[in-house]
Amino acid sequence: MTGRVVELRSDTFTRPGPAMRRAMAEAEVGDDVWDEDPTVDRLEALAATVTGKEAALFVTSGTQGNLVGLLSHTRRGDEIILGDRSHIFVNETAGASVVGGLQLRTLPNREDGRLRPDEVAAAIRDRDQHHPRTGAVAIENTHNACGGAVLRPEEIADVAGVAHAAGVPVHLDGARIFNAAVALGVPAAEIAAPVDSITFCLSKGLGAPVGSLLCGCSDYIAQARRYRKMLGGAMRQSGILAAAGLVALEQNVNRLAEDHANASLLAEGLSRIPGVEVDPGRVETNIVFFDVAGTGVPAQAIVERASRAGVRLAGGATSFRAVTSSEVTRDDILHALNAIDAAVRQPATAGV
Ligand code: TLP
User: Fold this and answer.
1) Per-residue model confidence (pLDDT) at position 178
2) Tens of pLDDT along 196-241?
3) Neighbours of 257 (CB within 10 A)
4) Which residues does ligand 1 sit against, CB inside 6 Å?
5) How many angstroms is it from 62 CA to the middle of ligand 1?
């Protein structure tokens, strides 16, 4: 037993490092609901700058950012067009419907996470009194359930173009927008330029303990501030959390390239394990999906066997999502590959 832990379940497991903890301890704070927290102000200003928007709002989570983001574009009874594999549709407990009275209308996400502009155009409602109003189009970049796939600015512009032609705003769930920016080698602002609003997360690969930012034009963010309050997300001395966010944005963006290299290494290694199905060519950022049906070993047995070697995996019936982050070194990846290789070679009859 090495005592080593290789955390591949999510980049949400990243823990704040010493510089971040120091910044949190030393943060200058005030009551942010009174607009008197200078550290939150600095974070919101920086978030607006890096996404190329007029203003930003510090929210508690990506889920809250998406919900406040959609509420601020819409009114009850509106319809949201979004991908059938999008995080908002699959993983946000139908908050937009429950809280916002919004109807979610899905279109198929292509394997690379894209929505087809012609399908978006066809889904936008006309003004017939029978129909819901199309309130917004929501897209995702990188696309979590599509293997961390990256949407290029021109692909986003194509979808935004058809939405805007019909007067419909576009929201981008950019939980991992900096992974996309690093993978493409372009500023996040260039990716976000075609959309009206963007949420991004500090608490994933960027390593902050808590928090996301919703960014957009000033009027929109003023409205979003009211919805955040309504949802209980207005915080007080939140500069302590914002200080971590500032370190995340100032120091942890460029290192995401390491996570991408580690994800590629993982996918290449997995592709050499008999019975494991994975396409290393599709790994663009820090997420790797792989399937173990061909090994004949139940996924749950692999989870438990790998866990005994300190490798933390999250899987479904036959498939896994592995996510690299600052918690995982190159050497950890080699250790994980050995552990997974050993786990699939043990016969199913050997138990867990
Ligand atoms: N994703 C989490 C889980 O909810 C699946 C993860 O481990 O990846 N948008 C995207 C694209 C996300 O991946 C997530 C979190 C969110 C929004 C929500 O962010 P939080 O967890 O801060 O509410």
Assistant:
1) 98
2) 999 999 999 999 999 999 999 999 999 999 999 999 999 999 999 9
3) 15
4) 10, 12, 61-63, 87, 91, 140, 144, 173, 175, 201, 203, 212
5) 6
pLDDT confidence of 148, banded at 50, 70, 90? very high
Tell me the CA–centroid distance for residue 63 and ligand 1, in Å.
7
- Atom 17 in ligand 1: which residue has the minimum CA distance? 62
Superfamily of domain 255-350: Aspartate Aminotransferase, domain 1 (3.90.1150.10)
349 CA from centroid of ligand 1 (Å): 36
Q: In 3-state terms, what secondary structure has residue 159?
A: helix
The CATH architecture of the domain made up of 18-251 is 3-Layer(aba) Sandwich (3.40)
Long-range Cβ contacts of 290-298 (<8 Å, 24+ apart): 290/319, 290/320, 290/322, 291/318, 291/319, 291/320, 292/318, 292/319, 292/320, 292/344, 293/318, 293/319, 295/344, 296/348, 297/343, 297/344, 297/346, 297/347, 297/348, 298/348
Task: Give the distance (Å) from ligand 1 centre to CA of residue 206.
Answer: 13
Q: How many Cα atoms within 13 Å fall on the side-chain side of residue 231?
A: 24
The whole-model pTM stands at: 0.97
What residue segments make up the domains of the chain, in order of their start?
Answer: 18-251, 255-350
pLDDT above 90 as % of the chain: 96
**Best of 14, 144, 210, 324 for a ligand 1 pocket test (most atoms within 8 Å of beta carbon):** 144
CA-nearest residue for atom 19, ligand 1, is 62
Distance in Å, CA 350 to ligand 1 centroid = 36
Cβ proximity of 159 and 121 under 8 Å? no
Minimum CA distance residue for ligand 1 atom 20? 62
* Cα 199 to averaged position of ligand 1 atoms, centre (Å): 11
